[in-house]
Amino acid sequence: MAHEEIVDRYEIRPMRAEDAGQVLSVYQLGLDTGHASFETTAPSWETFSSARLAHLRYVVADTRTGRVVAWVAASRVSARPVYAGVVEHSIYVHPDHGSRGLGRALLDAFITASEDAGIWTIQSGVFPENTASLALHRAAGFRVLGTRERIGRHHGVWRDVLMIERRSPAI
């Protein structure tokens, strides 16, 4: 999909409470792949919302239908002041809307908003099998820091997680 088509058909905007059902639906579709998270069921909106920073939540919405097709959000990694500029993020794209550049456009917008908000490190954990997410993050300047081996069980199987991060070039 050409950049112009993305701009014409989709908009990136802040996540709103009225997006809750659609955001959680896209989340659940990602969880259902078995390669997105240790979680198996999307939480309630209250749980989701309380765990994420209000000013660092964005969606991609189809301008023709208003439908949310992707989202990104961040959580603090610590309440300690020294970590004020470090967040952990999650990004999910509806499987019917993958490979269109939406994830990259959303992640780029999120990075810009994060840096504008004083964030200097964005981090996450990704299953090694989630090659699409790893490719997306590498293209956006993330690097793999290392592997946390057998960090947790998922559907009864011990799973590794690749720790990734992007540091702001301003630091």
What does this entry look like structurally?
This protein is of the alpha+beta class and 171 residues long. It contains five helices and seven strands. The chain has a seven-stranded mixed β-sheet with strand order 1-2-3-4-5-7-6. Strand 4, helix 4 and strand 5 (121-126) form a beta-alpha-beta unit. The termini are far apart. The model has no long low-confidence stretch (mean pLDDT 94).
The helix fraction, in percent, is 25-40%
DSSP E strands, number: 7
- Largest sheet at a glance? 7 strands, mixed
pLDDT averaged over residues? 94
- Terminal CA distance reads 34 Å
The best one-word shape is globular
Taken as a percent bin, the fraction of beta residues is: 25-35%
Would you identify the regions where 5 or more consecutive residues have pLDDT less than 50? none
- Which structural category fits the helices and strands? alpha+beta
The whole-angstrom Rg is 16 Å
Sheet with most strands: strand arrangement? 1-2-3-4-5-7-6
Number of helical regions: 5
Give helix and strand order, one letter per element, not per position.
Answer: HEHHEEEHEHEE
Record keyword descriptors for this entry.
171 residues, alpha+beta, seven-stranded mixed beta sheet, 5 helices, 29% helix
How do you describe this structure in short?
The protein is α+β, with helices and mostly antiparallel strands and 171 residues long. The chain contains 5 helices and 7 strands.
Q: How do the helices and strands line up, and which of them pair or pack?
A:
Elements: H1 3-9, E1 10-14, H2 20-32, H3 45-50, E2 57-62, E3 68-76, E4 86-93, H4 102-116, E5 121-126, H5 131-139, E6 143-154, E7 157-167
Parallel strand pairs: 4-5
Antiparallel strand pairs: 1-2, 2-3, 3-4, 5-7, 6-7
